[in-house]
Sequence to fold (86 residues):
Amino acid sequence: MAAGKPLLAICDSDSELAAMVGEEEIGWVVPPGRPDLIASALLEAKSNPDRLHAMGERARKAAETRYTGRYVLQVYKNIIEELRAE
Fold:
């Protein structure tokens, strides 16, 4: 993501990685054991360079804003503060 490249995530569709790829619209999710779908994703990427570039830009932006140590620490801090307030 930080390299500004889209992801080809080979994982279960109900995983956190799959959710992140889908939410951020930064690549493809392929279930394990499906080389045919890997090939399809790669062919789709090759045939649509504009979409590939846009996914890469979104990936870089997400890495810089939502997946930094500082951001994650702030999210945890907010959760702890909310729990304390209850």
